[in-house]
Fold this protein.
Amino acid sequence: MNEKLKKYLDGEIGVEDLAPEERSEAEAWGRLFRTMREASAVRAPGTLLRDVMSAVEEEAAGRSSAGSAAPPHERSPEGSREERAGWARALGWLVRPVRIPVPPVAALAAAALVALVVWPSERPPAPPTDSSAVRPASLTTPETGGPQVYVELSLRAGDASSVAVAGDFTDWRPTVQLRDPDGDGVWTALVPVGPGVHQYMFVVDGSRWVTDPDASRYVDDGFGHRNAVLAISPPAGT
Amino acid sequence: MPETGREELTDAEIVRHVLDGRPDMYRHLVERYEDVLYRHAVRMASRSDDAADLVQRAFVKGFRRLEDCRHPEKVGGWLFRITANLCKDYLKDRRRDEVALDDAPTLASERGDPDVELDRSQLGSDLERALESLTEDQREAFVLKHVQDLSYEEMSEMLEVSVPALKMRVHRAREELRELLSEYQ
């Protein structure tokens, strides 16, 4: 395609600036564009507004309902997953050494492998860019009253609307929301957890359970899925 | 709160109402932008039912993340970007799943217009195939420029991509289509 025709199609020059043979091709392009416009000159289906607002109302109701795990309209797999989570939780009790401190070296190695950043809660964690990234109040930790550390969990999910983490430290409820304030598709949260070995999964868009691809260890949940395993040693000096 | 006339509300005001606890006000944004978003999705996805699903997902995602919209006065463009990204992801997934275009009806056949001439119908079908051959970015840029009839400046603001980059995408798309549709020119 010559430069003048390109400029014409880009709207930089008028048809009067084209030579006759160029006008012929320009007209052909014009016919093509009109055909495409006619084919897509459609209006949104009448059901779209209703469907969107139905989902929005459920979403809003879910937000106002304390402890709601996910929007009702996205819960279709939730029932079976809850069942799986129940089994996983039971499995977790079998393998989780709640009262046995994990050897710090092993725990640190595991932490490094899963690319986690851990801050002892005895000193303030590095301030997150978005203060809402940390929601310790929504957590139910297994070792009540014990020392906790902040673990940075992250998941790349560019097309997600929401990402939460659910694990034995949240009673397998996706109550800790990850955030993606800069919109780069990497969702992150600082999660306070007690020392020990924990299992967790991410919950994307309220219903899709996703195994952390960066975890160094996994355990079968007994239903064909894998829970990520997180080993946390007690903070130094405890 | 008294019901405010829709015509009097700006996009920024609607966003503020929604964030202040009036999710029902989101309806005005849906009514305002559903057609333009749907048209884009139809041209990108080629399948009207998938397009409707993509736009619905975009609106719901927009509602969930409305507080992240940095420029409420430009919420339409923000919703468009969400829709555009979902459309591109959809195309990538479709390619990955290797679903043949022939598995679904094209727009031309969906319309069922008896007055559509056979050659135009064939052109529409071939056009869909030709568009399928473009990259997601090329297809998006071409559709915005020549089907939605936007200026490069409008496209740049909407997609947050530079004008020269968009021109290059459109140019390459035209070259590709020119080759594929040469028999019609």
Summary: Chain A has a mean pLDDT of 67.
